[in-house]
Amino acid sequence: MAKMTSYWHRACLLFGTAFLLTACAADIRIKNVQEVSKSADTPYEKVLVISLFKSFDARRYLEKEIVLQLSEMGTDAVASTTMMDSMTPVTRQTFVAMVDKIGADALLLTQLVSLESVGTEKNRRPEATYNFRPTYYYNVWSVELTEYIEPPGMEYAHSVVLATQLISVFEEDTVWAIESDFRIHLDIDTTRDYSNYVAQAKAIGKQLSRDGLIAR
What we know:
Blueprint: H1 5-14, E1 24-25, E2 29-34, E3 46-52, H2 56-72, E4 76-79, H3 92-102, E5 106-122, E6 127-134, E7 141-148, E8 153-168, E9 173-186, H4 195-210
Parallel strand pairs: 3-4, 3-5
Antiparallel strand pairs: 1-9, 2-9, 5-8, 6-7, 8-9
Helix pairs in contact: 2-4
């Protein structure tokens, strides 16, 4: 698979970038950056799904959802993270071995290509406790107010672009590529919203089907 060498080099350069698929994403805008190649041996029936992100959990979540989407469309798909763990080297040789093991005819690879973030400091809502005690005087009470204020938190607005490429095993080259552009707002109390992985997987699967790359 010599033609894939430069591709994997570019992918590994981006592997160290953190993946921020958390909080609530807005509408996903899909742009074709490479139309279906005339040499594409479509439709593909056995796809190895790969995500290249710093977080192994993020890779596993997105791959799982993409596999579910492709399976619902009648395409046999396997997530690379089901055949490796966080210590497995993320190298070309690792994925080539997976292709041979499952007999894949295509690789679907997603990676982060752009991330812009803006953070805003926000004060948290204080909590208070009240203690009421009667005094020796008629209808006079002693009131103690204790207020607890947490340190300020950060809210983030992220602009994210993911690139997804389909690589034909037979052609040993990329036959199709898209970019998905979306916005994320992460408030003070939000940790992770798994629905974003589902939304991304649906968008990718829908575009693959629309472009005739997988069985419908």
